[in-house]
Amino acid sequence: MAHEATHDQHDHHHAPQGFFQRWVMSTNHKDIGTLYLIFSLTMFFIGGSFAMVIRAELFKPGLDLVQPYFFNEMTTMHALVMIFGAIMPAFVGLGNWMIPLMIGAPDMALPRMNNLSFWILPFAFALMLSTLFLPGGGPAGGWTMYPPLSLQSGSLAYVVFSIHLMGISSIMGAINIIATILNMRAPGMDLLKMPVFVWSWLITAFLLIAVMPVLAGAVTMLLTDKYFGTSFFNPGGGGDPVLYQHVFWFFGHPEVYIMILPAFGIISEIVPTFARKPIFGYRAMVYAIACIAFLSFIVWAHHMFAVGLPLGADIFFMYATMLIAVPTGVKVFNWVATMWGGSMTFETPMLFAIAFIILFTIGGFSGLMLALVPADFQYHDTYFVVAHFHYVLVTGAAFAIMAATYYWLPKWTGHMYNEFWGKVHFWCSVVFVNVLFFPQHFLGLAGMPRRIPDYNVAFANFNMISSIGGFLFGASQLIFLGVVVHCAFFARKKAADRVWEGAKGLEWTVPSPAPHHTFEVPPVVRDEELAHGHVND
Amino acid sequence: MASQVAEGQPGQAHRHGVRRTVVVLAIVVGAFFLLPFVQILLMK
Fold first, then answer.
1. From the CA atom positions of chain B, what is the Rg in Å?
2. CA distance A504 to chain B (A)
3. Distance of CA A424 to CAs A167, A205, A274, A421, A441, Å?
4. Do A214 and B33 touch (CB under 8 A)?
5. How far apart are alpha carbons A168 and A161 in whole angstroms?
6. Among A108, A183, A218, beta carbon nearest to B36
7. Which of A84, A89, A519, A98 is nearest to A270 (CA)?
8. Exposure pattern of A489-508 as b/e (b: 16+ CB <10 Å)?
9. Distances from the Cα of A304 to the Cαs of A310, A387, A480, in angstroms?
């Protein structure tokens, strides 16, 4: 790649002067990416503090610390904050930072809209979190907001408005990413030469475009049912509450994939780097992501087998759900095949990537168990479901975000993070996350329902183990915070341009830290420099 | 780039493509927003 020539032509590498101009008015993809990541980390700790309240209350049987309504507020807010405030903005931040660098674009296609997408979020979450301090409290009916329970909440209008704002932010972000990838690629960067992370975000952005408006429609109907006398979900007026569940999960299931497809992309970048081999089956990886995205639209009713669907629907949704294991299996196989025979080293990003592959697969297998209609009647609304989706979202999505942070942090800051403390963070996280979530499988199989502040003494031991794991996992994340802050402000060891020996791709051709402006002159893309090798051979 | 122009603003050749992409996606967003309403009205 003609990167050296490119960088000589940068006429200004410096960020705008002044805090307000740089961070509030920014149209720079790197600065906005940083803002997203800081916001996400903040929300990660706020949502985590809610989880600590939940695990503290469940440490032993009995109502010990908080009132049941507050407990329900915590479970609801924990989910909303982690999904919409932590995981999704983290991926948008990583996409903002890395997509233009990976495709050789000078910035996002719509830089001003990029600024607006981000700055909507703090207001949306301030509004939503403020409901905790209102008379009557915040939302407490679960993040799914099923009517009629959610209609009893006095804060519904606040939550619906904040969800509208988050949705607008996500949709604008998705439009921006699609417009960037389709229109701003460097010459020679054909679609099937793009890094898998870029592909994963392109497909995720289409999912966002398709399902966030559906969520907006569903919560708008909740709002009109409560305040404007409609009866979309009110049987007294001819409506049907189960219809809400169909509409919600038409959004909700693709939403799950919105939170995991970019993680697949991240792992597909990290594994080849530390295995020092091109990714195995690049095209199969891309097609598998597209296949998973398609299937995500036809499996929504597996979340609601227990409502009593027609037998034909039960069977269709069961088999469609099980079908997802095929492209997911292709991905897991290809990651392992990439590592096979490679000259592997185990720096922190690779450790998190390997943990992702193993632990996400455990979450996938428990998902297969939940896909079985007769079994789901037993597991539905138990802690087995809680264990399943935390394996997918914590050891899946959150671990991938941590892996990506360690992987690209030297490129962002220009300094190497402390590898020793990175590994301490990894080993603490991987041990304690299993102490936290694995016993929840047993609790669920034994019949403990989710979303309850008190429980039968028969569940006491596993709950205590789970809570201890929770506290230690939460504390371990302070190490992560320490490593990131140290790397950003205090680290001395300079990072090379190509931070990792086996790293390939355009993002490693720019200096570390990445200059404020990059690729103002498009780079020349050569196949041998791509992470996935000669894809057209 | 001049300070009035947003950083990374695509060149003239790209603008048309970006505009077309945004218009198509905006129509898709609108269609999917209306989808649940249409679905429910059809089921009434």
1. 18
2. 24
3. 37, 34, 19, 5, 27
4. yes
5. 11
6. A218
7. A98
8. eebeeebebbbbebbbbbbb
9. 12, 18, 37
Residues linked to residue A494 through DSSP beta bridges, in sequence order: A415
Contact A367, A302 (CB under 8 A): no
Q: How far apart, in whole angstroms, are the C-alpha atoms of residue A335 and residue A361?
A: 12
In this prediction, residue B44 carries a pLDDT of: 63
How many of the other CB atoms lie within 10 Å of CB of A437?
A: 25
CA-based nearest residue in chain A for residue B34: A217
Instruction: Give the residue from A23, A183, A517 with the most B CB atoms within 10 Å of its CB, the best one to mutate.
Output: A183
**Chain B residues closer than 8 Å to A183 by CB:** 10, 14, 17-18, 21
Instruction: Give SS3 for A382.
Output: strand
Q: How far apart are CA A97 and CA A401, in angstroms?
A: 13
Q: How many CB pairs under 8 A join A and B?
A: 90
Among candidates A182, A227, A220, A225, which has minimal Cα distance to A201? A182
Tokens of A214: 């559906």
- How confident is the model over A43-87, as pLDDT tens digits? 999 999 999 999 999 999 999 999 999 999 999 999 999 999 999
SS3 A415: strand
- Whether ipTM > 0.85 holds is no
Q: Choosing among A110, A189, A221, which should be mutated to test the B contact, i.e. which has the most B CBs within 10 A?
A: A110
Indicate the pLDDT class of residue A91, thresholds 50, 70 and 90. Answer: very high
Q: What pTM was computed for the model?
A: 0.93
Tell me how close the Cα of B4 comes to any Cα of chain A, in angstroms. Answer: 11
CB contact under 8 A, B8 and A111: yes
- How long is chain A? 537
